[in-house]
Specification:
CATH class of the largest domain: Alpha Beta
Structural class: alpha/beta
Radius of gyration: 22 Å
Helix content: 25-40%
Number of strands: 25
CATH superfamily of the largest domain: P-loop containing nucleotide triphosphate hydrolases
CATH topology of the largest domain: Rossmann fold
Distance between the termini: 29 Å
Amino acid sequence: MTARGLIVAAPRSGAGKTTVTLGVLAGLSRRGLQVQAAKAGPDYIDPTFHQAATGRKSVNLDSWAMRPSLLDALVAEAASGADMLVIEGVMGLFDGVEAARRTGSTADLAAHFGLPVLLVIDVSGQSQSAAALVRGFLSHDPEVKIGGVVLNRVGSERHRKFVADAIAALGVPVIGSVPRDETIALPERHLGLVQAGEHGDLDERLDHLATMAETHLDLDRILKLAEPARLAEVQSEPALPPPGSRIALAQDAAFTFVYPHVLDGWRCAGAEMVAFSPLADEPPPEDCDSCWLPGGYPELHAGRLAAAHKFRDGLARFAATRPVHGECGGYMVLGEMLEDADGISHPMAGLLGHATSFARRKLHLGYREATLLADSPIGRAGSRLRGHEFHYAALVATSNDAPLVELADGQGQRLGTGGGRRGLVTGTFFHAIATA
């Protein structure tokens, strides 16, 4: 039986979705409930906070990159044994890339699963005008049900009453109001929140958020608001084909961006992951038949990676006979050089010929559909994958390496070729989410 659930969404980014979501997760977990979290869209960082708050691994759900059958399978598996499913939205509720369904928006998930939306509104700088905003969200899409509203950054009891009374006239309940409190904000860096594992006081922060939820949100009404997710199809195949039967997986502070649904799919297909740490100067284990370098923050650890000679030499030996693939940060490490934020150049693995710079930053952000130009660890030649790019690093030197993929954006506009391949080594800035 699927857990009852809801979606926490907002009119825009920065309105307080993550704060409210973590408060609800931590508050309900404090009651002894088994709470399952999920994150809309291609986000690596928020799910790690979800897991810290609930003790259960969070999962990404993306209507643009994933087929409906995969979405259903992920929710069915993740919510098994849970009392409550809470999906944190992405950007604004209706923000996506296309006019039709499968836009990647949070609204797609609300309509697909038939789950109510708990709408978080930042009411700083307004009062009764917030009701006009809510009225628009109530009527914008009949397939998306706004089940309740949470007011965030409330200035005073008088302020709260003005806003709540105006919204109550619309027939939608105000389920909580969170006062302005900068102490509950989580610190950020260039790719989003500072990662959960880097907070020495994370337990205290989550405890504070649980108390915030108990004090300022009506958790009983939130539980009653939840409804069973509507599931129609289930896909048993992995989201991506496993790149080997025993996969050497780089895992440390420089290599953290791996989707749980991808690894779970590989395990279900019979593959085994063997973790190693480049920052600890560990080479990929010799008893593995492929190596995967995920994305992360190599630009913050470029000096240590350059000095990790056992890692670099072992990676070169491994790549002579077995496939190696790097995604985003992993792709940067496979190149000749990485320039850090201070403009200092650090030698990298040199298994591909490009060079990257974090000093000469340029934001690259968006969905990508990739057609593979050759067989590689991420699929066979001619196969199509959906995923995304999100990085500030720039290519400052290209090479004669053959490209790995033909790329298009979320609207289908061609972007040319991308990535590189040389021998058994491949890499791209593109993060793969699922086969198209």
